[in-house]
Every structure is written in structure tokens, then in C-alpha cells.
Design goal:
Layout: H1 40-54, H2 58-87, H3 92-106, H4 111-128, E1 131-133, H5 138-144, E2 147-151, H6 152-156, E3 162-163, E4 167-168, H7 174-183, H8 195-204, E5 214-219, E6 227-234, E7 237-244, H9 246-253, H10 257-272, E8 276-284, E9 287-297, H11 304-313, E10 317-321, H12 326-336, E11 342-344, H13 346-349, H14 353-371, H15 377-397, H16 409-418, E12 421-423, H17 427-439, E13 444-448, H18 454-459, E14 462-465, H19 471-476, E15 479-481, H20 487-526, H21 535-546, H22 568-592
Parallel strand pairs: 2-10, 2-13, 10-12, 11-12, 13-14, 14-15
Antiparallel strand pairs: 1-15, 3-9, 4-9, 5-6, 6-7, 7-8, 8-9
Helix pairs in contact: 2-3, 2-20, 3-20, 3-21, 4-20, 5-20, 14-15, 16-17, 20-22
Length: about 600
């Protein structure tokens, strides 16, 4: 729940059990060491609150910048009109009324409303594609996403453990292997490790009949014994079916040293591919006989690899962020076609041992010189080198603590940009990955399904809760999927880019039209000394411009192949050119008529 692993986590004596997590199996006596604000769960809640305080969308920033630009232009030109009119001794009240109407008409009060209608139409289109928008501005954010951080379990993978190719040792066969495994399992427990065994039997070993066997006694799995055992009776004969951790079963079987080495090599090979391996054995009398190994893994969804490639073609880089270990993350990443480079989240929080060695050398040199000012340079160097050598020896056998040395933020951002797979992450890590990518000028999307994903979902420019997400994840997300998989997100990105282009078209039109009206009026009054339209006509013109343009929400447009975001210098430049062109055409029309 809090850390995001795809399987239940076993806890031993001395380890920490977190509040607000679910006990799948077993009992314990525990000492409460933290409550309330000091719990891991509160850390998640506080990160969500922090993200809410920092929240301001690119849409809001754009509206403010457009508003500031038009207000500045309007105020400057209206002041010029008023000053010229007063210099000509025109009626002050008439001038004031006209200036006020012109100012109000020039300010784009309909801009947020029209853009909201456009986004609402986009949200309706997304809902038809099984993506429900809970925050309208998320559509505009999704259009600009260039980095998408995806949770592994349930989004990129099926969230259903499956049996890979089983390993059967000499003298045994696959039927015997799965017979013993099934007898040492209970389907009614709905254990995610045991369910795939029964599915495999249903699909590949349909003739395997468990009914003649009667379980006399069943000992469930526990973290100490690391195995399940079932005493079984059939036709008056007794034996014990055993299933559990390979190292435990191998020890029980008392295999020769060469066989132990052989089995361990197979287990290590499977572990390097990210498989979780079960060993299966049969005990008859005092003899325990190892039958084989059953590798389990959560396979990628059929469409995930193709969707990731399509997202790349459209300028979106997918990064996998998971609480699972590095081996599982690498194997799934390989199957999905992600880059080979993967890293543990702890590496984001610490520098390397090399940095500590170098730092120790500098400090040792400084201390020695302080204690003995008359020391020669060569002697100081020898002392510093000996200290560095001792520190290096220490860290060759001692694990580097978390947060011991923090790399420069720019270096970490560069590192995150290069890596596509992050493993063994906790909620704080997901939040930090998103935060640093945003500081690197990326618009970041994030998927998640659990409580542990809520801070990152809230922090991301566009947080997406997958179809089976918890209430906490749904509340933090901007878009909620009603269908599983990354394909829905890919379609949502394409639709959001269409919506963005409509919003951009209206914004350019609105700014250009405002410049055209205000500049035309200013030049007509200041240069040519005549009022081309009355105050009432200005209001009617503003309404006639804004109401029909609502149809732009349904305008046809092409999907941009790259992420789109607000380029305000470009928008304002294009709008200004169009506005000035409109002024020239208006004067030309007056001249012709």
C-alpha cells in the first residue's frame, strides 16, 4: 500500500510494520514507535498537501500573461486617446465614457470562458475514450507532456502473476511438479503466489486430477520457515508436498555439493531476469526429493511495448517508476523496449563512495596542516592519502548510508533525464523524480493506483489514476481511466493536443482582434480626428466577435507530432502581426468606401 510492491512484503523480527497497511497473513506483537505526524502515512499526506499549495497550471499562467499584455496595450492607447481629446478640448464626460467602454471591450473577459468550453468539449471526447477528466486544465497540461512516468504494476503489466517456463530436474516431470505445488497450496486463500499455479494447471495440464488426494494437515507459509507443507494421503499411502524458497528446500533435500551449485545457478539466472522462484519437493518418510522450480512473474500487457513506441514517435518519453526490486524492473523494461539503463531510487539521494573518499582526503590534509603548521607539503599529501585509503577500505565492506552526500541538483536532473527505469522507489522518491523533471523544464505526466502514488500524482502536471486505483489516488489525480493499460493514456494525449490547437487558435484570434479594435480606434482618433464607431457599437462588436467563435471548440485540426505548450512570445507576435494587418485592412476599406 505504501511502498508499491506487486507482492506482499514479508516482515521479520526487528523490521518496521507501517500503519495503514493491510496484514495479509500472520500475527505479531509490536511496539508502537511512531504515531500521527511521525508515521510514513502522514509523510504521504503532507506531500500531497505540499503539491496542492504549489499547484498552478500553465493555462492559468497563460491567461494571466495574455491579460497583462492586453491590459497594458489598452491602457497605454486609451491614455493617448484621452490626452489627445483633452488637448482638443472635447467634452470630458463623453471622452471618459468612450474610454471606459473601449477599455472594457478590449479586455478579453470571454477568454477563460471560451477556452473552458473548448476544454469541456475535449473532456467529453476523452470520456468517450474511457478517460474521465476531473480537472479541466489537465487537458492542456496533457497536450504538453514530454515525459511520462508510469507505474509498473497494472499499467505496464497485467498485475497478474504468471508461471514462466518451469524447471524440472532429472527423474521427474512437469505433471509431478505441479501436482506437488498444487497440493501445497490452497486456492481459497487467493494468495497471489499460488493462484498462477492453478491457472497453469487449468491451461496446460487439464488432465491433472487432485481429487484422489486428501490433505491431512496443511502448514501455511510464514517468514521464518519460508515454505508451505501439506501432509497428503492417497490409497493408504502418506507423503508431504513442500513448496517454498529455493534455499530452504535445497537445504532440506540435503543435495550433493555439485547439485546445490547447479540449482543455485539456475535460481540466480531466474532472479537476474526478475522472476520470483518457488522450489517444489516431495517428502516420503525421511527423504526429501527436490522435483523442480516454478518461476513466477507479472508479464507486460500485450499492447504496452507498441504503445510506448507510439508515444516516443509523438515526442513523449516513458519512464517506469516502481517499488519492485531492480532485477524485476530491468527485465520488464527489457520486454517493453525501454532503455537498458536502470537505477535504484536510493542512488538519487546519495553520492558515491568515491566522493566520500575524495572529501576525506581534503579534510585530512586540512586537519593535519592545522595541527602541524610546519609540516611539509609531501608529508601532508602522504597523510591525506593514507586516510583516503583507509576510508576506501571501510566503504568497500560497508554499505553507504542514505543521504550521506547529496549530489548537485543539476547533476541529479541530468541523471534522471537519462534513466528510463527507476526501481525500489518510495513515495518521497516518486514525488522528487517528478519535481526534478519539472525543474528541468519538462511537463510531466504520472500514473498511479495506490496511496503511495498520491503525492506524485498531485505534484505532476497531469496525474492519471488507472482503472483499479484506490480512492486516494483518484482524489489526487487529474484524469481517471476506466480501462486498463497505457493505450488509453496515449489516445488521451493525442486528443488533448487537438484540443490545445483549438485553444491556441482562439487565443491568437482574441488577442489579434483586441489589438485591431484598440489600435484602429487610437489611430482614427489621434491621427485622423474622427470616431469611426460609437461606444454602443464597440460593445455590439465585442459580443459579435466572442459568441460565434465558441464554435472553435469543434474546429477540425491535425494532431501535432510533438508535445505542445504555450509559447507566449510566438502567440503574442503572431497576434500582433494579424492585429496590425487588420488595422491596415480596415483603413483601406474606409478609404475605398
Amino acid at each position: 500500500v505504501l511502498t508499491g510492491e506487486s507482492l506482499p512484503v514479508s516482515k521479520k523480527v526487528g523490521e518496521v510494520a507501517y500503519a495503514n497497511t493491510i496484514v495479509k497473513q500472520g500475527e505479531m506483537l509490536a511496539v508502537v514507535v511512531n504515531t500521527g505526524r511521525n508515521t510514513a502515512f502522514h509523510t504521504i499526506v503532507s506531500l500531497v498537501s505540499k503539491a496542492e499549495m504549489e499547484e498552478r497550471s500553465h493555462f492559468q499562467k497563460m491567461v494571466i500573461r495574455v491579460g497583462d499584455f492586453l491590459i497594458l496595450v489598452t491602457v497605454v492607447l486609451v491614455l493617448i486617446i484621452v490626452m489627445v481629446a483633452l488637448f482638443r478640448h472635447e467634452n470630458f464626460f463623453e471622452i471618459a465614457r468612450f474610454a471606459l467602454v473601449l477599455t472594457v471591450a478590449a479586455i478579453p473577459v470571454a477568454l477563460p470562458a471560451v477556452l473552458s468550453v473548448t476544454m469541456a468539449v475535449g473532456a467529453w471526447n476523452l470520456a468517450r475514450r474511457q478517460a474521465i477528466v476531473s480537472r479541466l486544465v489537465a487537458i492542456e497540461e496533457l497536450a504538453g507532456v514530454d515525459v511520462f512516468c508510469s507505474d509498473k504494476t497494472g499499467t505496464l503489466t497485467k498485475n497478474q502473476m504468471q508461471v514462466a517456463k518451469p524447471v524440472v530436474f532429472d527423474g521427474h516431470d512437469e505433471r509431478e511438479l505441479f501436482l506437488m505445488a498444487a497440493l501445497a497450496s490452497r486456492l481459497e486463500d487467493q494468495d497471489p503466489i499460488e493462484i498462477p499455479i492453478f491457472h497453469y494447471i487449468d491451461e496446460h495440464l487439464k488432465g491433472l486430477d487432485l481429487r484422489p488426494y486428501r490433505r491431512v494437515h496443511f502448514a501455511p507459509f510464514d517468514p521464518i520457515r519460508k515454505r508451505t507443507e501439506a501432509e497428503v494421503e492417497r490409497d493408504g499411502g502418506h507423503f508431504t508436498a513442500i513448496k517454498g524458497a529455493p534455499q530452504v528446500i535445497v537445504e532440506m533435500a540435503k543435495l550433493p555439493e555439485d547439485r546445490v551449485k547447479e540449482v543455485n545457478q539456475v535460481v540466480e539466472l531466474l532472479a537476474s531476469k526478475g522472476y520470483r522462484t518457488l522450489a517444489v519437493a516431495k517428502k516420503a518418510g525421511e527423504k526429501v526429493e527436490l522435483i523442480g522450480l516454478i518461476p513466477l512473474f507479472d508479464p507486460p500487457r500485450e499492447d504496452s511495448k507498441a504503445v510506448i513506441e507510439d508515444m516516443r514517435r509523438h515526442g513523449v518519453r516513458v519512464k517506469m517508476v516502481t517499488g519492485d526490486n531492480i532485477a524485476i524492473a530491468k527485465e520488464i523494461g527489457r520486454l517493453l523496449g525501454l532503455e537498458e539503463r536502470a537505477m535504484r531510487a536510493v542512488d538519487l539521494r546519495t553520492g558515491g563512495a568515491e566522493e566520500i573518499v575524495a572529501l576525506s582526503e581534503v579534510i585530512a590534509r586540512a586537519i593535519y596542516k592545522r595541527l602541524r603548521p610546519d609540516i611539509s607539503k609531501e608529508e601532508a599529501e602522504r597523510f591525506a592519502a593514507s586516510v583516503a585509503e583507509e576510508v576506501e577500505k571501510t566503504f568497500s565492506v560497508t554499505r553507504l548510508g542514505r543521504g550521506l552526500i547529496q549530489a548537485h541538483e543539476s547533476e541529479i536532473i541530468e541523471m534522471i533525464e537519462e534513466v528510463d527505469i527507476f526501481a525500489e522507489v518510495v513515495p518521497e522518491d516518486k514525488y522528487r523524480i517528478v519535481d526534478l523533471l519539472q525543474k528541468g523544464n519538462h511537463i510531466v505526466g504520472m500514473t498511479g493506483d495506490g496511496v503511495n502514488d498520491a503525492p506524485a500524482l498531485k505534484k505532476a502536471d497531469c496525474g492519471v489514476a488507472v482503472s483499479n486505483a484506490t480512492d486516494a489516488a483518484r482524489a489526487a489525480a487529474d484524469i481517471i481511466l476506466t480501462a486498463p493499460g497505457l493505450g488509453v493514456i496515449n489516445e488521451a494525449i493525442k486528443l488533448s493536443r487537438i484540443t490545445f490547437e483549438r485553444m491556441k487558435s482562439y487565443t491568437i484570434f482574441r488577442v489579434a482582434e483586441t489589438i485591431r479594435i484598440i489600435l484602429f480606434m487610437a489611430l482614427a482618433i489621434v491621427v485622423f480626428n474622427f470616431y469611426p464607431i460609437t461606444a454602443l457599437m464597440i460593445i455590439i462588436l465585442a459580443l459579435l466577435n466572442d459568441i460565434p467563435i465558441l464554435a472553435i471548440a469543434y474546429d477540425n485540426t491535425k494532431i501535432n507530432l510533438n508535445p505542445v505548450r504555450w509559447n507566449m512570445p510566438e502567440v503574442l507576435t503572431v497576434s500582433s502581426v494579424l492585429g496590425i494587418t487588420g488595422v491596415l485592412s480596415s483603413f483601406l476599406l474606409f478609404y475605398i468606401l
